[in-house]
Amino acid sequence: KLTHDTIEHVRYRILQHFNATAEDYTVIFTSGSTAAIKLVAESFPWTPAGPNHQGSYLCYLSDNHTSVIGMRKITAAMKMSSFPVKPEEMLLLEKSHTPDDKQNCSTSHLFCYLAQIVRAH
To answer: Are 62 and 90 in contact (CB under 8 A)?
Structure first.
């Protein structure tokens, strides 16, 4: 009971930190980043390409966690495309798209960004 209550309290605090609600988001604890990345890849709502629309794709920074690079195997098995992007290319892509580009896209895509916290000692 104490463990369950503690986990639920931590979930609540995480949602609160991100100003999110349990109605819209779910906090899931995994054994580590590799398990979390695999879970995301396997449960993401990938959309196959059709005659009138582009399919989902995985876009990731070329310098990323090994497991993110490994997600390509999962997306390839589902016949989804994956693209590595260099950080400097992200700025160029952002400048080249208009707000209308984003609003007209109804296909879900996955972008993996490496975020690390570096603590000074």
So the answer is: no
Block residue for tokens 């629309």 = 53
Per-residue pLDDT of 86-100, as tens digits, reads 878 877 766 666 555
Cα 44 to chain centroid, rounded: 8
Three-state secondary-structure class, residue 93: helix
Residue closest to 71 by CA, chosen among 115, 39, 45, 47: 39
**Residues forming beta bridges with residue 88, ordered by sequence position:** none
Q: Between 98 and 19, where is the model more confident? A: 19
Q: What is the mean pLDDT of the chain?
A: 83
CA dihedral 32, 36, 42, 44 (to 10 degrees): -170
What stretches of 44-108 show up as alpha helix (H) in DSSP?
Answer: 66-77, 87-96, 99-103
Distance of CA 93 to the CA centre of its chain: 18
Dmax (CA) for the chain in angstroms is 55
